[in-house]
Write a structure and sequence with these properties.
The chain has a six-stranded parallel sheet, sandwiched between helices. The longest helix has about 30 residues. The chain has eight helices and six strands. The chain is globular and about 50 Å long. The chain is an alpha/beta fold. The protein has one domain: NAD(P)-binding Rossmann-like Domain (Rossmann fold). The structure holds nicotinamide-adenine-dinucleotide (NAD). The site of nicotinamide-adenine-dinucleotide has 29 residues, from helix 1, helix 4, strand 5 and helix 6.
């Protein structure tokens, strides 16, 4: 059975997405920079590997080891809280490379397998994890905001190009979710309270609540949804 590659799968949204896809009966391959990914994968009974998604040679080699791929969930992500006046070329590139460039390169590298899946009657799909910070203003993390807004442009462009081949691509703009990435902010009472106050549902979300949307968009139930 062809597999869905899930990046950032050792933690947070990526791990929850891998779990949700497995619960849906999908074959999943878990990638992350963090070595914990192999234990997370073993718990799910799925293959896992330490892969740096910004290293195109490493991702190409990892893809060569796969039997067939019918999907990608790009949940690997990074935030460096540096406003204008603080960021550097290196820190700007570090954020953009993981959050945005990696998805562009991965879809390109996986394209032959996604096209083969469509030709074989499958329903190949890609979901990227964007953010409300790709839609609204956060003054503390300009590189992150740019990466997440860029992901939306990338999603629409790729959807327009790949739709005729039967490949769907969507993004999830999630709110504030309790994951290790956000924990440092949640530990500051006034920051956590401002997140809660800004949330219509009046609370911080859980990774599983994003994973449910990811699993839906990856499934044939979302067969007429692309570029969204
Ligand atoms: P997380 O820190 O729990 O997970 C991110 C994972 O990405 C980590 O396991 C990390 O090791 C992995 N990763 C980072 N760089 C990598 C690389 N070069 N190669 C492979 N893996 C790499 O955080 P999360 O909240 O689950 O983040 C998932 C996605 O959600 C990210 O794209 C993040 O930007 C986005 N996001 C999170 C929030 C939030 O509220 N938590 C808000 C907006 C967007």
């Amino acid at each position: 059975m062809a597999a869905v590659v899930v990046t950032g799968a050792a933690s947070g949204i990526g791990r929850a997405s891998a779990q949700a896809l497995v619960a849906d009966g999908r074959q999943v391959v878990l990638w992350d920079l963090a070595p914990e990914v192999t234990a997370v994968a073993a718990d799910l009974g799925m293959p896992g590997a330490v892969v740096d998604v910004t290293d195109t040679a490493a991702t190409a080699a990892a893809i060569q080891r796969l039997d067939g791929v019918d999907g990608l969930v790009h949940a690997a992500g990074r935030v460096i809280p540096e406003p204008v006046g603080a960021y550097t070329v290196e820190s700007w590139d570090a954020v953009l490379d993981v959050n945005l460039r990696a998805q562009a390169m991965l879809v390109q590298q996986l394209l032959p397998q996604l096209e083969a899946s469509a030709r074989a009657g499958g329903t190949p799909a890609v979901v990227g994890i964007s953010s409300i910070e790709g839609l609204t203003a956060n003054p503390f993390i300009p590189a992150y905001c740019a990466s997440k807004a860029g992901l939306l442009g990338l999603t629409r462009s790729m959807a327009a190009q790949l739709g005729p081949s039967g490949i769907r691509i969507n993004a999830v703009c999630r709110g504030f979710i309790r994951t290790p990435m956000l924990q440092i902010a949640l530990d500051v009472d006034e920051v956590r309270e401002s997140f809660v106050a800004a949330a219509p549902l009046g609370r911080i979300g859980d990774p599983e609540e994003v994973a449910a949307a990811v699993a839906f968009l990856m499934s044939p139930k979302a067969s007429f949804i692309t570029g969204t």
